[in-house]
Amino acid sequence: MTENTGPGWTFLTNHGQVLVCIARDPGVRLRDIGERVRITERAAHRIVAELADAGYISRQRNGRRNHYTINARLPLPDTIARDQNVGQLLEILSATPAANRRVDRTGTSG
């Protein structure tokens, strides 16, 4: 019997997950992005192109690979979070794992 480890959905879109992959490894390959996000390499390529076209990332060729730079100052494209920028999102997503923080019932860290 297969054990269900979680819901069949995620909090972050594929675009958000690709951005996190790039933030963690600016030299990441599209193949690796696809594997980590569980999308095809072609879908990873399309998302990276969309992020670049929108100005969220820039690409610089380094030999046979790309090196990505994130424009952390751009605002998030979400209506509910438009007052935050990409850098703030990435800061949250790369913070200390929740298991190492104590959270009370009101949701504030302690």
Placed side by side, the strands forming the largest sheet appear as: 1-2
From the helix content, strand content and strand pairing, which structural class follows?
Answer: alpha+beta
- Helix tally equals 4
Computed CA radius of gyration, to the nearest angstrom: 16 Å
Major β-sheet annotation: 2 strands, antiparallel
Strand content: 5-15%
Overall average residue pLDDT: 86
Can you tell me the overall shape? globular
Overview of this protein structure:
With 110 residues, the chain is α+β, with helices and mostly antiparallel strands. It has 4 helices and 2 strands. It has helices at residues 14-24, 30-37, 41-53, 86-93; strands spanning 57-62, 65-70. Strands 1-2 form a two-stranded antiparallel sheet. Helix 1 crosses helix 2, helix 1 (14-24) packs across helix 3 and helix 2 (30-37) crosses helix 3 (41-53). The longest helix has 13 residues, at 41-53. The termini are far apart. 16% of the residues are buried. Residues 98-110 have low confidence and may be disordered.
